[in-house]
Amino acid sequence: MIAALYAPFGVLHIVGSHGFLPIMPPVIPFPLQVVIFTGLCEIAGAAGLLIPQTRRLAGIMLALYALCVWPANIYHAFSGVPAPPLPSTWWYHGPRLLLQPLFIWAPLWASGVVNWPFRTAR
């Protein structure tokens, strides 16, 4: 399930890379290349989740990815730069920022790195 979410977003980062440039913090060097690289990371992570031998590493790397892109989401929320088709309201930004820990946890859970909060009783 998580792979089915990451793969299309990875493709979107590649084919629509220019649309993501406004939300890149100005301190990020080579923003276009970084956006394309993040798309490749999402696609590779999605594929890695589907392969039992790479599932654990893919989950860890996707969690790190979600952590690393959080600053772009924060910048987008507070800078006020428009990035259509993404909304520019706090109805979008508030939940997006609050849910980022879930986006970090989900690949860890999907890959079996963590089982919290669904531990089985001993």
TrEMBL record:
The keyword Transmembrane helix applies. It is a multi-pass membrane protein. Its main location: membrane. InterPro entries: DoxX. The chain crosses the membrane at residues 27-50, 57-78, 98-118. The keyword Secreted does not apply. One of its GO terms (cellular component) is membrane. This is DoxX family protein. It comes from Caulobacter henricii. The lineage of its organism: Bacteria, Pseudomonadati, Pseudomonadota, Alphaproteobacteria, Caulobacterales.
